[in-house]
Design brief:
The structure is a single chain. It is built from three helices and four strands. It is 41% helix and 31% strand. The radius of gyration is 12 Å and the shape is globular.
């Protein structure tokens, strides 16, 4: 995962490759770390993620819940088509989705 911040303090994080049961803990750890800085907006780009497994989806949902508790507007941008379907099936109409 890579990330950057703009002049307004918004953070953009990009995930590339596959998020599997073996490395989802790393995604969770990095998202938690980014959320602790309490950016006004955390934009998570998934367009380079070729696979997000069930544990990765759970990490995203947990990060979204934590973001809400911290007052951070967390969004997912450009998920791969398969990941988009999985996220919609997880909770249709969820505000995490574009």
């Amino acid at each position: 995962m890579t990330w950057s911040a703009d002049t307004r303090g918004h953070t953009v994080a990009s995930v590339a490759g596959a998020v599997t049961d073996h490395n989802a803990w790393e995604l969770k750890r990095r998202l938690q770390w980014l959320l602790l800085s309490r950016p006004p907006v955390l934009l998570l780009q998934l367009n380079q993620a070729r696979f997000v497994g069930p544990l990765g989806v759970r990490c995203l949902a947990a990060a979204y819940q934590r973001a809400g508790q911290l007052g951070v507007d967390m969004r997912v941008a450009a998920p791969a088509s398969g990941d988009n379907r999985v996220l919609h099936m997880t909770r249709p109409g969820h505000p995490l989705m574009p």
